[in-house]
Structures are given as structure tokens and as C-alpha cells.
Amino acid sequence: MSHAPLGLLFDLDGTLVDTAPDLARATNALRAHHGLDALPFEVIRAQVSNGGSALVTLALGLEATHPEHATARAFLLDSYARDVAAESRLFPGLEPLLATWSQPPRAWGIVTNKPRAYAAPLIEALGLTPGALLCVDDLPVRKPAPEPLWAAAQRLGLSAEQCWYIGDHVRDMQAAQAAGMTAIAVGYGYIDEAEDRHSWRADRWFEHPQDLTAALVDLIASSR
User: Which of 35, 45, 173, 216 stands 20 to 30 A from 197 (CA)?
Assistant: First the structure.
């Protein structure tokens, strides 16, 4: 990895944007609706990257096959949709990275398993302007399939080999590897303590967003 990539593709929740506070609010609203006490924030945070169904299971103990799961999931997502960016923020230290990769020939985008109905308002509220946004409902397949990553790279006018895919989940690394992109894992994301994260076969790890930014800035400087 001696050359800086032309394209940066990010997972959304837990990689680019810290959405856990708003999803925790919605999760605990579901628990309150069922007369249950709030769960600690860190417990919810570890499950955010696994999606709404996982949060329902965490909140109520209802597996996806339970007849009441779908109703509970709809309640949680409705609670979340009322304000997707009340407390969600770009992870500190990523602003200069996005500014640099907003200048041609570089570009950046987002590939997420989040539905567009929540991803698009969140990105707009935060004033982010990705060159490509691929959401879970845009294609018939989702990560870890490589097709969403390929589609995002194509929209940026780049090849897979010119892109890094950056994520906080094993499926992100699997998608990057399948797509032929450099797989970058971030340790600051929503990772369960029980997860053996170093088995993900990432090309490189960054424990802090500032470290990711610094490494990429150094790559640009060294390639001049």
C-alpha cells in the first residue's frame, strides 16, 4: 500500500458516522414501550452494525422468526426515523480526509446496509456530499456481496483496484476482498467485545479515525 487510493468507500454506521446515540435512543424507546428499563449505551453500541433486527432481539429477546418481531422492528425504526441526526456526528478527525478526497482526481463514497430512507436524510442533515451512495435497497444483493462496492466505484469513475473499502464489521472486509479492493478495518467502530476482530483478514487496521486520516495524508505526501 505504497500509493494513496484514488477512491475511499466507507461503511456508514460505526465507520464514517457515529450513529449509535440515535439508534440507542430508538432501542430504549422500544424497551420503554414494553415497560422495560433502558439498556446501557455500550451494550447497544456493540450491536448497532448488525442492524435493526439485531437491536430488536437485543431489546426484547425476540428472534427474527418470532411473530412479534416485525411489529417491534417497525416501532424501533419509526422511533429512529423521527430524527436520524439528533446526536449522530461524523467521527472526529475525518473532516480533513473527506475534504481532501472531495478534490479530483480523488473521490469518496458510502456503501451501507442501511436503508436509503434513513441513510439519505442522515447524510443530508450532516452536510455530507459523497460522490456515490449505495444503500441496502439499491441492489438485489447486499454486503458481503461485492456488487454494491463495484457499483459505488463505477459511480466514482474508478476501478476496484483504485479504491479502499473501510468498515467496522467482518462482512465489510469480506465485501472488500470479494470486490478486489484494499480492505481497511477500523477498531473504533461498533464491535462486540466477544468478536475475534483480528481474524477478519483486513489489509490494515486503524484504531482511531485520526490515525486513518494521518496515514492517508502521509501516503499522498510520499507519492508526490
Answer: 216
Rounded-to-integer distance, Cα 204 and Cα 39, Å: 33
Nearest 5 degrees, angle CA 177-CA 3-CA 12?
50
SS3 91: coil
Contact 7, 100 (CB under 8 A): no
Judged by DSSP in three states, 9 sits in strand
Catalytic residue check, 11: yes
Burial of 40 (0-12, 13-18, 19+ CB in 10 A): exposed
> Contact 104/142 with Cβ under 8 angstroms?
no
For residue 105, whether the previous peptide bond is cis, meaning omega lies within 30 degrees of 0, is yes
pTM of the model: 0.94
Is there a cis peptide before residue 5, judged by omega within 30 degrees of 0?
no
* CA-based nearest residue to 114, from 23, 183, 8, 208: 23
Cβ atoms of residues 111 and 11 within 8 Å: yes
- Choose, from 11, 22, 168, 172, the residue flagged as catalytic: 11
Three-state secondary structure readout of 180-210: CCEEEEECCCCCCCCCCHHHCCCCEEECCHH
User: Distance of alpha carbon 196 from its chain centroid, rounded?
Assistant: 19
